[in-house]
């Protein structure tokens, strides 16, 4: 029984010593860090900027095109436009584009006017415009979608936007490159001053992140004239690479 009591006492002593060690040593690392920063606060500093870029191919295209109709009567202009747009929609869907990737971009009805020889304003009928935004997820199909839409009656265009659907991971890579670029500059400056960098005092992401895009266009009149010569046509489209750029500003303390 006495041996058991001694054993339990020994275990309790070990636990107490371990707990005391944890309490005593736990703040050491944080105290060292605080002391290091406090010392650096009085040291000379340098501020450098870093830039990082990643180049990638776009993986989606957004085509904006539609139908414009004119008629002396507003109702007839709308009806003609509705018929033509229904044909365009059906043709685009037949290429394999999902309904979820097609959206109305703009619809407008306005009255047209002309001027007589004596300066009198003359009613010249009505124009109706209906444009669609079409997301193409296979860039090899962009030309086919445009040609198919024109064959079906599309006669207005607002160009093509190329982009990367999810470029956030690429931006983080560019951000890491920017930080390394800033460190390399700081090392070079500190070395030229006969010193070296000690600790980072602050890091600031200096640019506003925006997904990269590029724009293209095509001659709707030329496409329409070529479409008239054949039942099926493809518009040659070549997407350029996109560049994702990140910028940071870093302040380093110099070692004494």
Please give the structural blueprint.
Elements lengths: L1 H40 L3 E12 L3 E12 L2 H21 L7 E14 L5 E16 L5 H11 L3 E8 L4 H25 L4 E9 L7 E4 L3 H8 L14 E13 L2
Antiparallel strand pairs: 1-8, 2-4, 2-5, 3-4, 5-7, 6-8
Spatial arrangement of strands, main beta sheet: 3-4-2-5-7
**Helical content (DSSP H or I, runs of 4+):** 40-55%
Number of E strands? 8
Biggest sheet architecture: 5 strands, antiparallel
Give average pLDDT, whole number.
Answer: 81
Please outline what is shown here.
With 256 residues, the protein is of the alpha+beta class.
Question: What features would you describe in this structure?
Answer:
This protein has 5 helices and 8 strands; from the N terminus they run H-E-E-H-E-E-H-E-H-E-E-H-E. The chain is an alpha+beta fold and 256 residues long. A hairpin with a 5-residue loop joins strand 3 and strand 4. The two termini are 64 Å apart. Residues 1-29 have low confidence and may be disordered.
